[in-house]
Amino acid sequence: MSDRTPALDAVHGMLTLLFAVAALHVLWHAVRSPGAGRRDRVDLVLHCGMAAAMAAMPWSYGPPLSGRAATVFFTAAALWFLLTAHKAPGFADRLTPAVGMAAMAWMSRTPPGADASETVAAAGAPAAHHTAAHGHATHASTTATLVTVVLTVYLLGCALRSLTRPMPALRTATDPAHRAAATDPYGYVRDGAMSLGTAVMLLLPH
Q1: Higher pLDDT pick, 131 / 65
Q2: What pTM, to 2 d.p., does this model score?
């Protein structure tokens, strides 16, 4: 039985629009930055891929947006952002997209508790074994809830930070961080919107 409702579909529609606009903005920025370095090009591809996947996820009922392949891909993407930070300040900036990719990997995984319960039920296991499996599923569900809450709170904090930042000065930027921001003046808005949308997606049934 489907748990979809008109209200949930409306929220999913707004999230799809948000992530579609974010993906288009990333593509637009990539076209305007032909001289970007290898790391920046990979970053843009991963951002665009995540935004496109998030736009499609509410309407996906199976592979390729869920399952082991997607989980491995987005886990690797999260590690890319962490392992390619050159300096400590850069690490802080790259932690947000890394957590976003980790949240995507988390949402695309197959819930282990559900698999255990379905396997026991299909096998017609004795009541004692079924109770043990149910207890394991409950523990897994509690852990999953905790991980979801941590990811959601962090992403909401990142969204608030990004969306309340002042626009960078386009003519007076001198240090590398501010020069990079000046080349993508709406990047903070895009990143904040993606963090907010990802946090909402974590809380919705999918």
Answers
A1: 65
A2: 0.76
